[in-house]
Amino acid sequence: MRSDLGFRIGTDSSKFPAPPDTDAAWLLEKAAKVGLEGVFFRSALELSPALDVGELRALREQADDLGLYLEVGAAKINPFAAPEAPEIRILGDGDYLLGIERIVAACAAAGIHEIWAATANYKFDLAGRLACDRYRTDVTWDDQLRATAKVMAQLAPVLRAHGSHLNIETHEEITTFELVRLVEEGGPDAFGITFDTANVLIRGEDPVAAARRVAPYTRQTHVRDGALFFTDEGLCRVLAPCGQGVIDWPALLSALLAAPRRALSIEGIMGRRFQLPIPLYDPLWHAGQPDMTTVEMAELVRLACGYEGAVERGERRSLASLAEPADDHEREQFVLDSVAHLRAVAEQIGG
């Protein structure tokens, strides 16, 4: 049910609840049954552990028959994060870069050309700055960005040869400013951006302003909302269904009209909603983000004030409520509520 504006709304495979022993084919059927329009699989190995082109093509054809888009993920392309993905090195017979190249080639042979990637990791079970790879003490973030750019330069000829794009996510550790620079340097004919609407809050960015920055290069989108609360550190972000957080969805979707692809994959929740800090009172946090603007930071404060006011009026869930575990029913409802809201917004914009 593509909107008149070209938006297609699907789900992230890793965040959609599924019974044990189900596979990619089951999720494609389930997605179509509940009215979704596509599935993003976090790893191509979810579709075929052996990276078999025949298996990949069969799933792509199944998606086509169901009227679904099909997107897959590759790996982290920051070499300092590579040791945490040993399966990619194994796939390349010891060569991590070759492992990524084999994913690109196999997916392209199966007709899948939009491929997710990311730069680093966030350790959700750790507290403070060091949970984020941006603040590693053994290697600076600038060195990580330079190393990532070198890997991109090595992958670019392979991507161009296959007519594919590697789309780097606005993950928790990287800013949209940095991603735009990486993609412009690497070449938009080989690289794009996977825009995660809620992650940019962690980096002190206004989601609407962020959307406007990345839209010309956005080829995949991970969609969810965020609730903002004041804390002793500054603010915190907690995940929420689209329309139940702080994001101005009409403005954000309007910005994404400039995107070359408009597939929106709802990235839901696991058993928790990931309360992550935005440490506005930490000078080291500010020093590590030279592109951050006071205008966007002020907008986050305004949005947090508005959300907490809505909590006081009983219109939104409290921080204590959002800290409660989520069962499979609520996880699925997170996706379906988000889809309903985005479709209503798309219709509003189209009108």
Automatic annotation (TrEMBL):
UniProt keyword terms in alphabetical order: Isomerase
Gene3D superfamilies: Divalent-metal-dependent TIM barrel enzymes
Any one GO molecular function term: isomerase activity
Superkingdom of source: Bacteria
Transmembrane regions listed in the UniProt entry: none
Domain Xylose isomerase-like TIM barrel: 28-267
Protein name per its UniProtKB record: Sugar phosphate isomerase/epimerase
The organism's taxonomic lineage, starting at the top: Bacteria, Bacillati, Actinomycetota, Actinomycetes, Propionibacteriales
